[in-house]
């Protein structure tokens, strides 16, 4: 095959070290990499790029002949299409995964190069190709198997047991063909009984303020940046998951992060839980002395029975969404239950019932504390640190109590929230679960993380020089 070679650097160029204009009609993206265009998602060969440049020295590379190993995809076409049809018919692949895969199949499968002329990588175990390494998207998925083999000698119980194991995978849309075409073809080509991916959940792009997140260009907020903001992990998790680009691109903005933290986490979820637990924790005479009360009038409490019916339907929707890996929808439904809880408290006027109708107030409080526990269960996949803190405030052990289903997996008890925590149970000490994000702090963060990381570094150096001059 032909490959780009940089005479200045004296080496063949890795895909990530060459950029040029995308050759795909109608795209013309000026920063397409040697193996893929980030804009249109099309997989490329580096020699297809228009006006390619070496990213190390900026010079124009030349084309040289070189010998490589290929995966013979056309010979696997029938087996691959049969495999793809099964999850497609079952509806367990997200639509963007289906579209990306069908685009590959429509073009016609071609032999795919699986080696590179590089020094860094997994060496090819063949005498003729000993100076080459495997292409990263050939060997990386195989790493899923080898990682399991490092963990347990019984790895075949997972990877060669398709009758009893379901494989779920999550990724961005630019990595789809490697997992729906390349990797399955690699496994199918062995003729062995591998566990193939059943469900794939693919996200579109999360954009940053007015542009794209880009690790190579240093634009956006990354792991170390997120930690440096001192915004709690559960806030980051909630915002990113509620903003998960499942069907189309979504946008990260600091003002939106602030709004979701203050309006949804603090004023909705945090407010509901704190109102319930704080009232129960009040001394007897004004509350329940931190002990869950007995509720004697459940059968006749219309408001509570109406709430239970609504919550029951939402639980069914939540389970359906999570089973179908619609995480954003699952999170939205869980938060709807919190909103129902707030409305329930307001409509019950529990603060008046405490003196006027103690039995009714006890029912409202016992039901509400059950909802608190239910929310800890429902939100644990999204905000595990939040759920852990809620269970501590409920004085419950996460390992023993975090489930709204019985031993058979029946979720029926979740439709009776008053039964989730028994009367007589003593709760822990209530405390606020979230803090609001102030305008000044958000403005500061937006300014701090504006531009690229290189520009941020320059700004920091300029400020430091000015401060040194003033001193």
TrEMBL record:
User: Where is it mostly found?
Assistant: cytoplasm
EC numbers: 6.1.1.10
Which of the seven top EC classes does this enzyme belong to?
ligase
Q: Name one GO biological process term.
A: methionyl-tRNA aminoacylation
The Methionyl/Leucyl tRNA synthetase domain covers 1-277
Record's keyword annotation contains Nucleotide-binding: yes
Under catalytic activity, the entry for this protein gives: tRNA(Met) + L-methionine + ATP = L-methionyl-tRNA(Met) + AMP + diphosphate
Keywords (alphabetical) are: Aminoacyl-tRNA synthetase, ATP-binding, Cytoplasm, Ligase, Nucleotide-binding, Protein biosynthesis
Domain Methionyl-tRNA synthetase anticodon-binding positions = 306-453
The signal peptide stretch is none
- Give the molecular function GO annotations: ATP binding; methionine-tRNA ligase activity
Would I find Ribonucleoprotein among this entry's keywords?
no
Q: CDD domains attached here? A: Anticodon_Ia_Met
Q: Can you list the GO cellular component terms from the UniProt entry?
A: aminoacyl-tRNA synthetase multienzyme complex; cytosol
- Where found, per UniProt? Cytoplasm
The record's similarity note reads: Belongs to the class-I aminoacyl-tRNA synthetase family.
**By its UniProt entry, which NCBIfam families does this protein fall under?**
metG (TIGR00398)
Q: What is this protein called?
A: methionine--tRNA ligase
In its UniProt entry, the species of origin is given as Zizania palustris (Northern wild rice)
